[in-house]
Amino acid sequence: MFTSVDDVSARLAETGYLASPAVATTVFLADRLGKPLLVEGPAGVGKTELAKAVAQVAGARLVRLQCYEGVDESRALYEWNHAKQLLRISAGRDESWDATRTDIFSEEFLLPRPLLTAIRGDEPTVLLIDETDKADVEMEGLLLEVLSDFQITVPELGTVTATRRPFVVLTSNAGRELSEALRRRCLFLHIGFPEEELERRIVRLKVPGLGEALTESVVRVVGALRAMDLRKAPSVAETVDWARTLLALGAGTLDEAVVRESLGVILKHQDDIQKAAAKLDLDAL
Amino acid sequence: MTGVAERITGLVGALRAHGVRIGTGESVDAARAVEALGFADRELLREGLAATLLHGAAQRAVFDPVFDLYFPRGVGGPAEGTADREALRDRLARALAADDRALMARLAAEAVDGLGGYGSSPGSDGWSAYQTLERLRPQTLLARVRADVRGRGGGGAAFADRLLDDEIRRRIEEFRRLVGAEARRRVAERRGRDEIARRGVRPTADRVDFLSADRDQLAELRRTVWPLARKLATRLAARRRRAARGTIDLRRTLRSSLSTGGVPMRPVLRRRRPVRPELVLLCDVSGSVSGFSDFTMLLVQALHDQFGKVRVFAFVNRLDEVTGLIDHGRADPDGLGARIRAEATLTGWHGSSDYGMALGEFAERYGDAVGPRTTVFVLGDARTNMNDPNLPAVRDIARRARRLYWLNPEPRARWGTGDSAAPAYAELAEMHECRTARQLGALVSRLLPV
Prior knowledge:
The complex is a heterodimer of chains A (285) and B (450).
Chain A: H1 5-14, H2 21-33, E1 37-40, H3 47-58, E2 61-66, H4 73-76, E3 78-80, H5 82-91, H6 97-104, E4 110-112, H7 114-120, E5 125-130, H8 137-149, E6 151-154, E7 158-161, E8 167-172, H9 180-184, E9 187-190, H10 196-206, H11 212-226, H12 236-249, H13 256-266, H14 270-279
Chain B: H1 2-17, H2 24-37, H3 42-53, H4 60-70, H5 85-98, H6 101-115, E1 117-118, E2 126-127, H7 129-136, H8 142-152, H9 164-191, H10 193-199, H11 215-223, H12 225-245, H13 250-257, E3 278-284, H14 290-302, E4 309-315, E5 319-321, H15 323-328, H16 336-343, H17 355-365, E6 374-379, H18 391-400, E7 403-408, H19 422-428, E8 430-433, H20 437-447
Parallel strand pairs in B: 3-4, 3-6, 6-7, 7-8
Antiparallel strand pairs in B: 1-2, 4-5
């Protein structure tokens, strides 16, 4: 899919995803080694976006499995269409049982769910398994077969093996510790908060109307906030939101009054706002 | 390219020695990654190896210095070097003002070469990061760098300017790190890479000895409280699920077998009543073990929703309840220890710890805090300063509680030496060695009641 790491960065940048060297290298390796990519990091640093960007670059179809507590086989792999099977049985009343039986367990009555869909297709596919940490431990066991051999066993039909390996991205917020077995099957990528230079480029790309000096100040203040050990450190998404807010407010420079008014955009907890205000020498809120 | 394979296995070996679990499959992947990436760009190689070998973000802190040793930037000292301290300081000030990372790295190499060398005969010489930084004193450049940046008008907007000091401090911190890495590299050239990779690289925070951890390490540990608590909560929930399945209830199995003609077709399992266990913590917060106690208190607080009731008591030679303080301590975990020592009555006539007195006071004043559902943890090194260990009080607590555990941050070999009453206490309470956060995590997930 990619020829070099620079190729990855360049093509991701075309879709509006600015990748750090770590991200570009890992995506390149995931493609080369044919291994799934496990992406961890705080909320709002672009984990899900990465999968979407890769799909766009590769011209691949994006299949997404959103994990939640209680997601199970019938939501993730496949399900038999019972209603349709019943109709089929009552429609073919004169048939012998053997004929009916082989017929109702055929592809026609199978409802593929994301994992099976991703494996069966012939076209290039990016499989995004989002928020893996939200799913139960049992679900991880299910993923192991899919991720290491790219195959799924349907007892009535046999084993479905991928003709073309999908590019798999798993994301996790570290809400729960993923099992060692799952981690070992993946390349690991931690996306942290970006370097100042990269973040400036992101702000410039997403909020082009903001002046250069203001962009610089915004990134510096956010950097300082992240060093403060808050309950929820502002992420890239918050930086961009803040930049948009400042643009909407028509602020020319960053001064005390503007920061005080808009601090709520980047910090989501009242204690954080107070702490940050104290550290930044803002007057009492 | 046999050298490459050896490099990789050496790197993997050093990482394993630091507790990173890497299988053979990952080593093979790492080699394939090297093949795909080539050696043209060292940073890409670093990221590639990290992606294939590591399994968690916390391991990165160990990986980076080890990588620097096995895939060094270069060999030997810098081509041109100067031992002139003032010249170096001038150039460093300019590099810090411009935030020029490449130049800072070059200066670190020159500084170690010029100022960090010690010893002369082969075998006893080396390079010391400490000595380099002590002579160069980069922290004293702050004012100069600030003036330099302001003078250029590079500070930009007036508001962001107030962040400048912190930013410069971070840059200086970065420079110190670079000096440390450079000194390690030079020493490794002299003494062998494997040795330095195992000894010279700081272990991850969860493997640092509580008793010898410095302030930075303790602060780093406190940041791991929440992730660790989440991990432990998962394990506790799994244990609880297993425990809830329970054993066969014979009476109800027989009763239900009547409907199938006396043949027990379906076993009925005994159902456990969902009782949330209660927890009492007795923490020695005197100087020597306070790092350990503070961390454990925060961890238990983070786990509090797993329990019906958590009560925390702190003592030095008198004992006081601090449950409320810890509840409020969530906003500011760094100041917790200081606040406990300021707001609770922990010392009587003198300032050194006295286990006998404190445990006696607990049994007397708060005896009703311990019931048949309570698990009691005592945290401390059991060093009584030659006072009476007051074993009857411990016996009394052990009799009333469901379980009594003692977590001792000292290595087992030192129990019973000097004024330690550990062996005497260990006869009454189940005592465990608990020197690192990793050990604590393992103990907590095993010992905590479900």
